[in-house]
Specification:
The chain has about 180 residues and is of the alpha+beta class. The protein has 4 helices and 8 strands, in the order H-E-H-H-E-E-E-E-E-E-E-H. A hairpin with a 3-residue loop joins strand 5 and strand 6. Helix 2 (about 45-50) crosses helix 4 (about 145-179).
Length: about 180
């Protein structure tokens, strides 16, 4: 008789735990945090795109995303190394969701367990006129870890985006003035 009771309690506990986990994962998918920065650059969309997609040279100019390798095509997996100022760097392997030359590069990186953490990183180039673009750099974070790291997104991650934007602007505008 005691074994039956224990089995019922174990089943009930399993059902409750499963419901809680499903609820947390469902809730975490609805929770998101976006970091968005933008900068105007006096260079052509073609020039900014060329710098942004010249992955082997990131190490020479980019203070935030210090290394990228992989093919620049939809559904390709990249290897990306970021180095937020004042933090240990991290390497992750996102999948490219969209590549629209001279307009957008969009990838998603996910933590191993669904619902814990993912980030959609989007670079957009908007033409504003001849040799003048707006570079929009953003990431949409979702998952349970958003609650834990949200403050970090508004400080170190945002600062990393701003640093990268400034470096991209300097490199693109320097190239224009030399030409």
């Amino acid at each position: 008789m005691e074994t039956r009771k224990r089995t019922k309690y174990m089943i009930a506990a399993g059902v409750v735990a499963t419901a809680i986990v499903a609820g947390v994962i469902g809730w975490s998918k609805r929770k998101s945090k976006e970091v968005r920065t933008e900068i105007d650059i006096r260079a052509s969309d073609e020039r900014v795109w060329q710098i942004l997609t010249d992955f082997p040279n990131f190490v020479n100019w980019n203070p935030f995303i210090t290394k990228i390798s992989g093919d620049l095509k939809k559904r390709a997996r990249l290897k990306v190394r970021i180095q937020p100022q004042g933090e240990r760097g991290m390497t992750f392997r996102p999948i490219i969701l969209d590549v629209e030359p001279k307009r957008e590069l969009h990838w998603i990186g996910r933590f191993a367990v669904p619902g814990l953490f993912s980030g959609e990183h989007i670079f957009t180039i908007e033409p504003l006129g001849k040799d003048h673009v707006r570079f929009i750099h953003r990431e949409i974070f979702t998952g349970l870890f958003v609650l834990i790291y949200a403050r970090n997104f508004d400080t170190n991650i945002r600062q990393g985006f701003e640093d990268m934007n400034q470096a991209l602007k300097a490199k693109a505008e320097q190239s224009i003035s030399i030409s």
